[in-house]
Amino acid sequence: MLLNGIFAAITTPFDADGRLYLKKLEHNVDRYTGSPISGLVVLGSTGEAVMLNGAEQRELFRTAIAAAAPQKVMIAGCGHESVQETLEFCEYVAALGYHVALVRTPHYYRAQMTPAAMLNYFRTVADRSPLPVLLYSFPQCTGYDLPVEVVAELAEHRNILGIKESSGDLAKVERMVQRTSHIEREGRTTDGFQTVVGSGHKMHALLNAGAVGGILAFAACAPTACYEIYAAFNDHDPKLAAEKQQRIAAACIRIVSELGIAGVKYASDLNGFYGGNPRLPLLPLTAAERHEIESLMAKLKS
Questions:
Q1: Residues with a known catalytic role
Q2: Would you kindly state where each structural domain of the chain is located, as residue ranges?
């Protein structure tokens, strides 16, 4: 399974009462699958996965895959604190037809999450998962930064496809790519261990560092604008790629990194997707913040 290109980390729509708004999810997925992005991530961090109970997560997974075009790669956020629950979701989404299981680092008992514990967690999941596993390190949310040395060991596992590295640390991505460049997957359609990144405002630099693509929250509200960076890079046009990167940089930093999910959802509303409000305790935007996003997104129709 190749992870080249841009993947939208999609949001979870809620209605005015805070319940899942599945008709709007279908609408969003249909629009995304008509765009040039490679695929979708359902229930990643941008999807407010930690805000949903198990029944809601399953309902969301069912609805999204049913609305998706068959040519898009579908990645399911399956990571939970225990191996048991993580595997239950890996098995569930595999039966629905998803292609990859995105598994975030367990982190609640952070002091006990030693390299040995992380190696055991991910190897046990990968041993038993019916889907290829994509490691997920997002230290800004979890407080745990998966070390390069641990990633390099895990890369040897046949069922670990790669990593989504969301720290934005350019030097770390370079080291990770170097340490895993020897990995080969005989008999499988991959380019070895694949590094995808989650920092849209650094996408061009991270591609230069060896990333094969990006899973981006900003692609939830501006998928084509994000794709254009990758397309220019892939066409060996560094000047155009830099221009496309500069075009989204300020909006990406303010909307994703600073205003968070509420910002991404409102920017999505402006571009023909349904965003709506996040779930409490995440707060909706103020009028001033909405106006700021309107200005940032004015030239980023997608």
A1: 164
A2: 5-228
Phi, psi (degrees; rounded to nearest 5) at 148: -55, -40
What are the tokens at 196?
């995808």
pLDDT at 215: 98
Q: How far apart are CA 274 and CA 28, in angstroms?
A: 7
**pLDDT tens column, 254-274:** 999 999 999 999 999 999 999
Backbone φ and ψ of 69, nearest 5°: -75, 145
Please give the Cα distance from 58 to 35 (Å, whole number): 25
- For 88, counting Cβ atoms within 10 Å of its Cβ (0-12 exposed, 13-18 middle, 19+ buried), the class is middle
Q: List, as one string, the DSSP characters of 27-57.
A: HHHHHHHTSS-SEEEESSGGGTGGGS-HHHH
Please tell me the number of Cα atoms within 13 Å of 186 on its side-chain side. 0
The confidence score (pLDDT) of residue 189 equals 46
| CATH of range 5-228; options 3.40.50.620, 3.40.50.300, 3.20.20.70, 1.10.3720.10 | 3.20.20.70
| Stated pTM of the model | 0.96
pLDDT at position 299: 87
Q: What is the largest CA-CA distance in the chain?
A: 54
Determine how many CB atoms are found less than 10 A away from the CB of residue 114.
10
**What pLDDT sits at residue 185?**
67
Can you list the residues of the chain whose pLDDT is less than 70?
A: 185-191, 302
Burial of 34 (0-12, 13-18, 19+ CB in 10 A): exposed
pLDDT (0 to 100) of residue 291: 98
